[in-house]
Amino acid sequence: MSGAFSTIRVSAPSNASASTFTGWVEAGGLYSTSEKRKRSQGEPSSHFPYDARRMSETAAIEARGLTKRYGAVAAVQGLDLDVRRGAVCGFLGPNGAGKTTTIRMLLGLVKPSSGTARLLGHAIDDRRELCTKVGAIIETPAFYPFLSGADNLRVFADSSAAPVPHPRLPALLERVGLADRARDKVGTYSLGMKQRLGIAAALLTDPQLLFLDEPTNGLDPAGMHEVRTLIGTLAQEGRTVFVSSHQLGEVEQVCTDIVIVQAGVKKLQGPVASLLEEGRRLELQVAPLDKALAVLSAHPALEARVEGNAVWIKAGREEVPALVRALVGAGVDVFGVASRVPSLERRFLELTGGAP
Amino acid sequence: MSPWLLLRAEWLKARKRPMHWVLLGLLASTGLLFTLFVSTRAWMDPALRERARVMMPWPHILEHVLHVLQFFGRVTAISLTASIVGSEYGLDTWKMLLPRRSGRSGFFWSKLGMSLIAVVVGIAVVVASFVIPCSLTARLLGIEPAGGVELQVVGGGYAAFFLEAFFYVAVTVFAAVVTRSTFGGILLGLGVMFFQDIVAYAHPLIALTLPAVHLRNLQALLSGDAQLLEQVQMAFKDEVSLGTSAAVWLLYVSALLVAAFTHFRRRDLAGGTGG
């Protein structure tokens, strides 16, 4: 089991202590005790740097009870979303979890069966306001293969509600590293080049909010790095980026916030740092293991389990001295105690109970 | 400005699509082949020279082109329209286009506009492919025109053909939107064309109800084609006015376009297989 938990240390946001992150915005609205108190008293949230009561004015994405049914099947079921402006939010879930359907609903391509949603403070059916403020790549970007990359961008520019001056297009192609291939037919592009052209198309109207559905799909490691860097740059420019991805490592590197959905239902939402902090465990190097486990089993809250040659428990730093005393008192040798934060992949699997 | 930009985008797509050049090339080749065939026969066989006199020289050739358009023109109008509308579904490019505008109507009307422009371009290509080589060849071979042709009457014939092509454009737009494919648009467009030609003359009531005979009636009345008018009146078992046939045309075209537009505007574009 070694390696299941990485030793990456994730620092909590500067405005919140680690102890604040004891709960999550889960389905059903579960918040930490301190969060609940703050929200009920109208104090600024520890999770977000703004007042939660003013969410509808300041949130980039806000959804309440968003549902899409195809006959008896609910592709998305009662989804609540709150994504703050300026965040890079990872949207995770197994295949068929409803990620793309959610994005299509938010972009007005699919009508919700019920529920409401707002983007940048505008209702999602207020397309007049949103169409120039929101850019998107949905699944693999689609193009006209018989047109060049530059011509494809011209078509999308002319199809936009706000005029996009054609002289801007070479700069966009340059930005995504396609200037040299701008005159080549898109039919000759690799998947990675199409992804980059898709990002250029999404940036045509200089949007404040970007939806990127699997943006690194099909890219080689260098291409993935380029796109991750680009997403970082976009966020630095003040844009909100909503990234749907299967690449958990990528999400961990790029995203500040995360939403996990499964079978059309939201499992969890919040900052990546606190999600990982929630999964923090103590690794006890002890012997004999069975005797140690017997001692620790007396405290069910510790959720003690043996993995490899160590016992893992859920406990805070302040509990370590008492635990060590109890173990030593029971004749257990303690060789080491270490605090570990799990990888995002590990946390994802814990929360969804399945493969990413 | 915005509708013109949409139309410009459609023009760029239509202009650079290889399939459209193949179709136009096929259309143009009919004129060239016709010229080659008729001029060779006329040169070799003096008896056919008289026939060539009423076909090849300007402006007689315009009348002949109209007959060619009756078949090839309709098929080409259906194919071009199906390609212009249906390819967005086939390529899945609607997902890249629709979020860019507040509504879908602009896309729909620009597609219809581009389809009609394609019909006009198609007519122009066919006319040019016949008129230019035929006129030049007739002059080279010394074939003088026999009898006169009223350009106004020929113009009426072309106007009637445009109305007919417009009807098939509407059918194909509807079919491509409903089936979400180029193939569906072509199949249903051609299906309606052949079905009408077979069924419409079976009974006067069917002739009056379906647009096919009304389209022929418009053709006969606008081009002053007495022979065609006789056939049409036999099908109707009566005389039907230009206004009545025009109203039937308008009714069908409007109904098809409104149905297609409503369907296009309301329908989800779920697509894809992602999560």
Structural notes for this entry:
The complex is a heterodimer of chains A (356) and B (275). By secondary structure, chain A is α/β, with parallel strands linked by helices. Chain A contains 13 helices and 14 strands. In chain A, helix 8 links the parallel strand 7 and strand 8. Chain B has 275 residues and is mostly helical. Chain B is 81% helix and 0% strand. Chain B has helices at 2-16, 18-44, 46-53, 60-90, 94-97, 105-141, 151-179, 182-199, 204-209, 211-223, 226-236, 242-266. The mean pLDDT of chain B is 87. Classes of the chains: A alpha/beta (356), B mainly alpha (275).
Keywords:
heterodimer; A: 356 residues; alpha/beta; six-stranded mixed beta sheet; 13 helices; 14 strands; 31% helix; elongated; disordered N terminus; B: 275 residues; mainly alpha; globular
